[in-house]
Design a protein that fits this description.
Elements: H1 2-7, E1 11-16, E2 23-28, H2 30-39, E3 49-51, E4 56-58, E5 60-69, E6 72-82, H3 93-96
Parallel strand pairs: 1-6
Antiparallel strand pairs: 2-4, 3-5, 5-6
Length: about 100
């Protein structure tokens, strides 16, 4: 319960590369959320992390549920921000020609 109090209501941010300014080049899931929490001093098992809307594929604000025990759950906010460098996906010239 003490761990839950430490995380309750906290907000974390991740800067990511986007393909068009809003869509992520890839996605953010449980593994990335676990790494983000660890980087901020919170050791949480993967099985305790639930990205409510599934893997994150666009910038924005998302709720993540942390379940320590059946009776102990907390919600945190994860802000996904663009790092300002869009990833350019080059088309194969073979397909772009008529």
């Amino acid at each position: 319960k003490e761990l839950a109090k430490n995380l309750s209501g906290q907000s974390f941010s991740i800067q990511v590369t986007t393909s068009d300014g809003t869509r992520l080049y890839g996605s953010i899931g449980v593994t990335e959320i676990q790494a983000l929490l660890a980087k901020n001093g919170h050791q949480i098992e993967k099985r305790s992390i639930n990205v409510i809307d599934g893997p994150i594929r666009e910038i924005g604000q998302y709720q993540v549920l942390i379940t320590y025990h059946a009776d102990v759950q907390e919600s945190i906010t994860v802000n996904i921000l663009s790092d300002g460098t869009p990833k350019v996906i080059e088309e194969d010239s073979e397909y772009s020609e008529g």
